[in-house]
TrEMBL record:
The entry's keywords: Acyltransferase, Transferase
CDD domains named among the record's database cross-references: NAT_SF
Name the UniProt record assigns to this protein: GNAT family N-acetyltransferase
Domain of life per record: Bacteria
PROSITE patterns: GNAT (PS51186)
A single GO molecular function term of this UniProt record: acyltransferase activity, transferring groups other than amino-acyl groups
Native species: Mesorhizobium helmanticense
Location of the N-acetyltransferase domain: 4-153
Record-linked Pfam families: Acetyltransf_1
Amino acid sequence: MIEINVRRAEQSDLPAIVAMLADDPLGRAREDTSEPLARAYFNAFAAIDKDPNQFLAVMTEGARIIGTLQLTFLAGISSQGALRGQIEAVRVAADRRGTGLGQRLLEWAVAECDRRGCRLVQLTTNKSRSDAHRFYERLGFKASHVGYKLELR
């Protein structure tokens, strides 16, 4: 059996990450998987990679990338200066969904937030992702807030 690990993403992982982000109806409408990848993906990766409060993670099985998520650590005054962990862009490769890997990836992220001293872990997911809602609730997340977004471009 091949070992499964979670590690910091490398620039060479971008095609696999973008492919996973694009692998659903919402992602297909907003991602561009054409080669070569758009420069914006590399610029975003560079900004994330140099920021100590950002962690772009990949889950690997041998040399294959089978999952990804992004952690952001947010300092705030609210809740007595609590540090928050924000989880975004959670994806597991289509052929590996339903195998428990998503749970392992989220458990890793929560443990990393705890290790960094976060008092709270939060995430957002699109209203249309009912399977994701059930998944997050099964892991103990509560739909406690309403979120709003304003697209600027």
